[in-house]
Amino acid sequence: KDLHLPVAVPEVPSSPRREFPADWSIKTRLLFMSSQPFTWAEHLKAQEEAQGFAQHCRATETNLPQSIQEPKLSTELRCAFQQNLVYWLHPSLPWLQLFPRIGADRKIAGKACPWSQDEALQQVLMSDWSVSFTSLYNLLKAKLCPYFYVCTYQFTVLFRAAGLAGSDVITAVISPTTRGLREAMRNEGIEFSLPLVEESRTRKQKNSEVNLEIEGANSLQVGNSMEDGEEPAPSDDDDDESFSWLEEMGVQDKVKKPDAISIKLRKEKHEVQMDHKPESLALVKGTNTFTLLNFLINCKSLVAVAGPQAGLPPTLLSPVAFRGGTMQTLKARSINAKARVHLAYEDIFSLEIVGPVMPHSLHSLTTLLKSAQRGAFSAVLYTHEPTAVFNTNLDNASPALNKETVCKDLPTCGLHPKTLDQLSQSPALGKSSIRFLEMKDYAYTWKS
Whole-model pTM? Predict the structure, then answer.
């Protein structure tokens, strides 16, 4: 057993692969561990830092050798490391932590928020935010930006370019959603689906059919085959019939019959039950994503009206530059420690990365470590939980998807070809995300 691995090693990891599946969740922290030191990641020279920023802005493709003998002396490695730590953010308010936004009230409370009581200032911030959001969407449509996140205080939206995640059109996934948000989207004419609800419904239907085949098709058994005590959706006819006996008794005027709203609420009981849960994930495709853009820009509930986040526009996170975006870097530090193994102490080397780690960063950093750590390291990944559901397979790619045609312009989106190839695959992790990643002899195993 490798001594440098963390204690909580999964018992049933995946089989070793040359590549791990794309993870569309945002990570808040990565902790890499290795038997080889991470001194190459420390104290970058000013020239190396500048070169790293330039390489990022010019989308320079860096291809490192399989193994670097002296990582600390490799300028190419150190510049590439700086290049891979860059991300773009809007708005930029250095005294506030702008990610994560869900559940961030406690961290923002007590900080200076001059816009919270100033409506004119709020309008300026939102106007600026709308310009940045539109800029990102236009870049995405032109395949010059692969994907980006919109992080509000209640939900997160992931926009992906056509050709990514196995889809031949632009997609946007929203989670978690509420009945109110979904109703507002419908009213704006936005067509969307609820993939996890539909998947669950199909699964239950298949189970019912299997039960029917086994038990025979009579009404009693059909009733028993419903899972989780699920009730059939009530209809208006049922409600009318259930009150007909009151008319026969002549007391219908004395008993208050449920109004249309009550009946509608009863019908939507199951839909309301999934509010704020991962199952409420909504998928918007194609031209509907443009309608969604306009809907979000004008959506009043996008910004909190009270509390610490009042008046603060949502956070935009992107792998590439956009209008109004600010260049930021993930925070990195190496830690050397000794751990007691049997009767002796052994060195454990670790590298901690903190910040909003997006899918491309996770892939490019692990590719970098593969060369620097000679194909042997492990990593514990800390996921921003509300985004784990973005790994759901949308199952929306056309069977006749011509990958070459769809992905033709994607190489100009600013990502390394190998990273782009990983993110083009259909999501394979379901509602979960990678929690633990290990590389041995240049092959990955992972646990979600």
Answer: 0.83
pLDDT digits (tens, 9 = 90+) for 267-280: 566 667 788 899 99
Q: In whole angstroms, give the CA distance from residue 156 to residue 294.
A: 16
| Strand ranges across the sheet with 156-160 | 192-193, 282-285, 171-175, 156-160, 147-151, 315-318, 86-90, 326-329
Which runs of consecutive H residues, i.e. helices, occur in 63-112? 75-84, 105-108
227 within 8 A of 211, measured Cβ to Cβ: no
The pair of structure tokens assigned to 381 is: 């990944």
What span, in angstroms and rounded, lies between the C-alpha atoms of 238 and 223? 17
Per-residue pLDDT tens over the stretch 31-86? 999 989 999 999 999 999 999 999 999 999 999 999 998 999 999 999 999 999 99
Q: Strand ranges (DSSP E) for 35-170?
A: 86-90, 147-151, 156-160
State how far the Cα of 232 lies from the Cα of 238, in Å rounded to an integer: 11
Neighbour tally for 136: CB within 10 Å: 27
| Cis preceding linkage at 94, omega within 30 | no
pLDDT at 329 over 70: yes
